[in-house]
Specification:
Length: 157
C-alpha cells in the first residue's frame, strides 16, 4: 500500500510539473516574472528609460529620455504581468514602415505566419500567437506615424 501511495504521489507531481505554463519572452526576459522585476530589469538593460512617477494602479510606464519617441507600459494585476505595450513614434512614414517590417520579419521567424487583420499602406495589423502568448503588431501611418507592439500573456490553447 505504501508503494502504491508513493507511486500515486509521484504521478501527481509529474502531472503538475508538466502542466506548468510557459511565457513568451520580452527582450530576452520571460513575461512570467513579476511586473516590478521586469521594470527593474528593463531599466538596467535600457538605461535611457525613465520610470514615470505617476501612480497607476494597473501599469508602470517607462519613457525614452533621449529621443522621446519610445515608451513601454507594463500592465499588471497584483504584480503579475498581463501585457507589455511598446509605442514608437516618428516624424515620417518611411521610418515607421521600415520598423514595422523588420519587427514583422523577426516575429514571423519566432511565431510563424501571422493573422493579418488589416494590410494597407496606412494601417497594418499582424497577430502572432503560440501556446505561450500573443504579439499584436500595429502600424498607423497617419498625421503622427506610430508602431505599437502589444506583448500579451493571452495564449491560444
Amino acid at each position: 500500500m505504501k508503494k502504491l501511495m508513493m507511486a500515486f504521489t509521484a504521478l501527481c507531481l509529474m502531472c503538475a510539473c508538466s502542466s506548468e505554463r510557459g511565457y513568451i519572452d520580452y527582450r530576452g526576459m520571460t513575461m512570467g516574472m513579476s511586473a516590478k522585476s521586469m521594470v527593474d530589469s528593463l531599466q538596467q538593460k535600457l538605461p535611457n528609460l525613465w520610470l514615470d512617477t505617476t501612480q497607476y494602479d494597473d501599469r508602470y510606464v517607462l519613457t525614452d529620455t533621449l529621443a522621446h519617441n519610445f515608451t513601454v507600459a507594463v500592465y499588471h494585476q497584483n504584480d503579475t504581468i498581463l501585457d507589455i505595450l511598446e509605442n514608437y513614434t516618428a516624424t515620417y512614414n518611411d521610418s515607421t514602415s521600415n520598423l514595422w517590417q523588420s519587427l514583422h520579419d523577426s516575429f514571423e521567424k519566432e511565431f510563424g505566419w501571422p493573422n493579418m487583420g488589416k494590410h494597407g499602406d496606412l494601417h497594418k495589423e499582424a497577430t502572432f500567437q503560440n501556446d505561450k502568448g500573443t504579439v499584436l503588431l500595429t502600424l498607423l501611418n497617419t498625421y503622427s506615424p506610430t508602431v505599437t507592439v502589444r506583448y500579451s500573456t493571452e495564449r491560444r490553447e
